[in-house]
Design a protein that fits this description.
α1 (about 15-35) runs parallel beside α2 and α3 (about 155-165) runs parallel beside α4. This protein has a single domain, classed as 4-Layer Sandwich (Nitrilase/N-carbamoyl-D-aminoacid amidohydrolase). By secondary structure, the protein is of the alpha/beta class. It has helices at about 15-35, 65-80, 155-165, 180-195, 245-255, 280; strands at about 5-10, 40, 80-90, 95-100, 110-115, 135-140, 140-150, 170-175, 195-200, 215, 230, 235-245. It has a six-stranded mixed β-sheet, covered by helices on one side. The N and C termini lie far apart (about 40 Å). The longest helix is centred in the N-terminal third of the chain and has 17 residues, at about 15-35.
Length: about 290
């Protein structure tokens, strides 16, 4: 593999699943017409991340293996393009914020549920994911190791680090919040410290509390003027970045931000709540 074309579908959504399916398919076709190997949606596209505006009893979820996901699986197969579709999932343990990644044959390559839910807000009603899976994604440009984070996940360095340790070369990040300098800097840092490409797709301006500015960071810090190879504006549209995977792999073979110089035996406080002072423990669910 030499290069991979990633399409960020920075598009608005409504509260109606059927309407969003139709619009999502339309923009997948636009992405394919522009040569994309993979298309990524913003966070929880099935409902436009409208859960703050809708009473809990009226939340509209879709099953992970239902008509919504089957539809985009079929679109991926028809277009021979990988698709990362997001939705509000109806699961046995409760609703989940989910991404399903289909390869160019329409096969499910990865299913990820948001691990770091925003429990300080309405997402406290959601069930959380319990793992950071990595898959080998078959694309028209070749195979690539892919993992995912969703929005708030990016604020925890451990999310991207675990994905890197599991082999991820590309991390997909569906998003639904204002992208300003601090959040953009988080994504840049995750890419830098893990030598991992990171593609983030946000909603455009006009969607509540969103402002576009979807990005792709190459993961190559040295030898380039800027790791940011794409930053969209605020407008709705399909934004495509061409990622040089061959160069990224060569860079990862030579540079030092991987696992060789880590000293995890000294990092026990990161995962052991018992060693934290009371003011840092909080009441977050574990």
């Amino acid at each position: 593999m030499s290069s991979l074309k990633i399409a960020l579908l920075q598009i608005s959504a409504g509260a109606d699943v059927a309407v969003n399916m139709e619009k999502g398919e339309k923009y997948c076709r636009i992405a394919k017409s522009r040569g994309a190997d993979i298309a990524l949606f913003p966070e929880m596209f099935s409902c436009g991340y409208n859960i703050s505006a809708v009473p809990f009893e009226n939340w509209e979820t879709v099953p992970p293996d239902g008509h919504y996901t089957a539809h985009f699986s079929a679109v991926a197969r028809e277009l021979e393009m990988a698709i990362g579709i997001t939705f509000f999932a109806a699961c046995e343990s409760g609703p989940e914020n989910m991404l399903c990644l289909y390869d160019r044959c329409g096969n499910l390559a990865l299913r990820y549920s948001k691990v770091h839910t925003c429990d300080f807000d309405v997402e406290k009603r959601l069930s959380r994911g319990g793992d950071f899976p990595v898959c080998t994604l078959n694309t028209a440009a070749g195979d690539i190791k892919v993992g995912a984070m969703i929005c708030f996940d990016r604020e925890f360095p451990e999310s991207a680090r675990v994905l890197m340790l599991r082999g991820a070369e590309l991390i997909l990040v569906p998003n639904a919040c204002p992208m300003e300098i601090n959040r953009l800097s988080q994504l840049r840092s995750r890419a830098f410290e893990n030598m991992t490409a990171i593609a983030t797709c946000n909603y455009p301006s006009g969607m509540p509390d969103c402002n576009g500015r979807s990005t792709v960071f190459s993961g190559i810090a040295w030898g380039e003027e800027d790791m940011c190879i794409l930053e969209a504006g605020e407008e709705e549209g399909v934004y495509i970045a061409e990622l040089d995977i061959g160069r990224l792999r060569a860079y990862r073979e030579e540079e030092a931000m991987g696992n060789a110089y880590r000293r995890p035996v000294l990092y026990k406080e990161i995962s052991d709540k018992r060693v934290l002072p009371p003011f840092l423990r909080g009441d977050a669910r574990r």
